[in-house]
Amino acid sequence: MLTLRDCLDYCSLTEEEIGLLAEHHDLPAEAAGLIACSLSQSDEGIVVLTNWLLEIAERAIEDGNAAKAQQAHEACKRLLADHPLRAPDNAGS
After folding, report:
1. Considering the domain boundaries, does residue 42 fall inside one?
2. Domain residues for 62?
3. Is residue 44 part of a domain?
């Protein structure tokens, strides 16, 4: 069984960033970590995680919480740097 630490190492998010996702989805940190770990295995999952982090940042801005918004934006940047999305394969077109 994966620990939260294993998930953090695999998905490139910090414990605080997993906490943002957990809070956003009203989940325990361990569950959010497992979801992030699973999603980070595919480009589609990275897009989902990125969208969630951008939603968190947007809500934080609406709530006047600039620090939380910055944290979510930085997490998004790091996630995309560590898990770059591949260009679609257009060989079949």
Report:
1. yes
2. 4-82
3. yes
- pLDDT tens sequence across 5-59: 777 777 778 888 899 999 999 999 989 988 988 898 899 999 999 999 999 999 9
Residue 72 lies in a domain: yes
Q: How far is CA 20 from the centre of its chain?
A: 9
CA–CA gap between residue 45 and residue 54 (Å, rounded): 14
Q: How many structural domains are present in the chain?
A: 1
Say which residues have a Cβ less than 8 Å from residue 72's Cβ, sequence separation at least 6: 17, 20, 53, 54, 56, 57, 60
Using the structure block, give the residue that is written with the tokens 């801005």: 61
